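Class prep. Write one:
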Amino acid sequence: MSEVQDYQSSLADPTSRKFETFSYLPPMSPAQIRQQVEYIISRGWNPGIEHTEPENAADNYWYMWKLPLFGETDADVILAECEACYKAHPQNHVRLLGFDNFAQSAGASMVIYRSKVV
């Protein structure tokens, strides 16, 4: 039988919480985040940015940062909006989504900034 790693997490420890697939990996570098943005653009998905307090991150509803960036194809614009959201709300987690118009769902979702306040 193979050994399966258990990721220790708890509601009492906000730094231990996992939110999606990428949160089990080491934090993404700016270059890796850019690659994810470029993937969202290449799929024709609409980028959206959301944020929430660490204690509410497990909830289904996060605050939307402006409207989704409908039709935006410039990765620099999207990354600048992500950074602006984080600078405006440094106590919150910030996640990037790629909304798929055809499937009418989020094709991508990843926390790209974690709160520095714990």
Notes: The chain has a mean pLDDT of 87.
